[in-house]
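== Polypeptide entry ==
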Amino acid sequence: MANRIGEFEIATRDRGLEWRRLDFSGAFADWIDTFAPGEREECLADVEIIESYANPGFLDFLGTRLRQALELVADNDPANTIFAVSGLMDLYDFVHVSEVLESLDNHLQGVVVLFFPGEREGNTYRFLNARTGWNYLAIPILLED
């Protein structure tokens, strides 16, 4: 589906809606780059240390990125804006997608489209088919036959 994000953008704009994409690809590396060199080396040398830093550190970093993207359209019409979030595989093993969305609280006035690598059973989503999913009020966009 990620290779068809451009088609989603075209369809969104054709319907008169704004499109803002936020790609989390490379977000982990961006977050690690905020560390002092010695601290970065220490964290990367020990998985347990980096996992303990990731929540809440990486989670806060991602939430800030999302809020900054939302603020960029504050003067426009956020209720008519589609926020397309991709690159979610870079979150795997560090934070849950549901936690990132929950960090937005009431900041979101538009629609979020997650390009979610995983499976769906009913209203339960499993990220990368690796962990029990979360129930979420979502509408899946399915490929047509």
The mean pLDDT is 78.
